[in-house]
Automatic annotation (TrEMBL):
Residues 6-257 form the ABC transporter domain. Keywords: ATP-binding, Cell inner membrane, Cell membrane, Membrane, Nucleotide-binding, Translocase, Transport. One of its GO terms (biological process) is peptide transport. NCBIfam families: oligo_HPY. It comes from Sporomusa ovata. The keyword Nucleotide-binding applies. The keyword Zinc does not apply. This is Oligopeptide transport ATP-binding protein OppD (TC 3.A.1.5.1). GO terms for cellular component: plasma membrane.
Length: 326
């Protein structure tokens, strides 16, 4: 078994919402291997960003929000780290980019000032050296006229340009793990394609592992080697992208595929998944997808689904899939 960079083992997250504690993630498990891009896909509200925040230990309430499980980064459980230890890991060994770069860029400082600050927080270099490194990193993400961008304020840049800057900043400390949370969702299709290409080459050159979060399986399939499908705070299926696209086993994954134009077989009608992602409080027993599932059986509303593992570590949590197997 290959060594993982990151392993989530049965991670359960509880957050306070409207005065009540809600189990937002339930028994999440997945692995990220060195140099791979793992996709995390699911409808809005399925818990993708909360998963990212749990890994970065940025949940409201800190590690107390993690009600169970382990988050092993290079073999060490992040849940037990002190805030100071986590601070050192974030930015050095793990970095994150978001859908809207404006949330992580400070509007009152130039790109250059912020970039030099980041480099000098994590590396013992002179200001002059940091400026040179920042300019080189901007060139590496194909920013034309990097000197001018260096002196610009975030609002003076287009969305695509800001995302390039974020990728450069995130890579400046050569993190082993990069988490990209819907980094292209806010961009036009053509810019989105450029950013995806850039991410792919950046990652190939740096050997970082990536968790690429998107609600769009089409985007995931262009970039990722493996994908974990999330539904209502749980992973329902995980495996190689080709396997998931060609032979999905979980009814939710099948429904997700049929709702994407590119992947529905020709002549087949596009379908939407009836219903909406449930409020997790509403489902006490059974599989969280069962109210919307086309293949549900009696057991699905009563008991948590069995987990089965097919060849190539293709994992499915579903009663129907396990029945077909045995
Ligand atoms: N800070 C928070 N406090 C309480 N509940 C939250 C918080 N952040 C997210 N949630 C809830 O957790 C669930 C998953 O949210 P999120 O991870 O943002 O979904 P996604 O990124 O997949 O769209 C949602 O039901 C959301 O309302
Ligand atoms: Mg999100």
């Amino acid at each position: 078994m290959k060594q993982t960079i990151l392993s989530l083992e049965n991670v359960t997250v509880e957050l306070l919402s409207g005065g009540e504690i809600r189990q937002v993630l339930q028994n999440i498990s997945f692995d990220v291997f060195p140099g791979e891009i793992l996709g995390l896909v699911g409808e809005s509200g399925s818990g993708k960003s909360v998963t990212a925040a749990a890994i970065m230990q940025l949940l409201p309430g800190g590690s107390k929000a993690i009600a169970g499980g382990k988050i092993l980064f290079k073999g060490q459980d992040l849940v037990n780290k002190t805030p100071a230890q986590m601070q050192a890991i974030r930015g050095n060994e793990m970095a994150m980019i978001f859908q809207e770069p404006m949330t992580s860029l400070n509007p009152v400082f130039t790109i250059g000032t912020q970039f030099v600050d980041i480099i000098r927080t994590h590396k013992a270099v002179t200001k002059h050296e940091a400026i040179q490194q920042a300019l080189n990193m901007l060139k590496a993400v194909h920013i034309p006229d990097s000197e001018r961008i260096f002196q610009s304020y975030p609002y003076e840049l287009s969305g695509g340009m800001r995302q390039r800057v974020m990728i450069a900043m995130a890579q400046s400390c050569s993190p082993s793990l990069l988490i990209a949370d819907e980094p292209t969702t806010a961009l036009d299709v053509t810019i989105q394609a450029q950013i995806l290409r850039l991410l792919r080459t950046t990652v190939q050159n740096s050997q970082s592992s990536v968790i690429f979060i998107s609600h769009d399986l089409g985007v995931i399939s262009q970039l990722c080697q493996r994908v974990a499908v999330m539904y209502a705070g749980e992973i329902v299926e995980c495996g190689r992208v080709e396997t998931i696209l060609q032979d999905p086993k979980h009814p939710y994954t099948k429904a997700l595929l049929h709702s994407i134009p590119d992947f529905s077989t020709k002549g087949r009608t596009l379908t939407s998944i009836p219903g909406t992602v449930p409020d997790v409080r509403a489902i006490v027993n059974g599989c969280r997808f069962h109210p919307r599932c086309a293949e549900r059986q009696e057991v699905c509303s009563k008991q948590k689904p069995a987990s089965i593992t097919l060849p190539e570590n293709h994992r499915i949590n579903c009663w129907q899939a396990s029945k077909e197997r045995y």
